[in-house]
Design a protein that fits this description.
The chain is of the alpha+beta class and about 100 residues long. The chain has a six-stranded mixed sheet with strand order 1-6-5-4-3-2. The radius of gyration is 15 Å and the shape is globular.
Length: about 100
């Protein structure tokens, strides 16, 4: 028996990913499905990022574990005080939109 085929990843711009993520209905639906946040990467922000000293560059995944699905991958700068740097929001790198994986190339 073969496993079900997954849809091809659709490459979209950062702007389109942000637009999808910033839609309140989409965001609340994705967050409702999220059962776990997994920290993937954390390191000091590079000097050319323009962030204050001690800021961390962080990448994390949002998972729907019962359905074994990656719902989204995000990047953010976390300042030493815990606030989010740059735009003040996490930026999506990958989103699962209506079963279609979308990513910023």
């Amino acid at each position: 028996m073969s496993s079900p085929s997954l849809p091809a990843v659709r490459k979209v711009s950062k702007r389109e990913l942000r637009s999808i993520w910033n839609d309140p209905t989409f965001q609340s639906t994705l967050l409702r499905k999220t059962t776990q946040r997994v920290d993937v990467y954390e390191a000091l922000a590079p000097p050319d990022s323009g962030q204050e000293d001690g800021t961390l560059s962080c990448v994390y995944d949002l998972m729907d574990n019962p359905n074994e699905r990656l719902l989204g991958t995000f990047h953010m700068y976390r300042r030493p005080d815990g606030s989010i740097g740059a735009s003040g929001k996490a930026d999506p790198i990958f989103l699962l939109v209506d079963g279609v994986p979308m990513c910023d190339p």
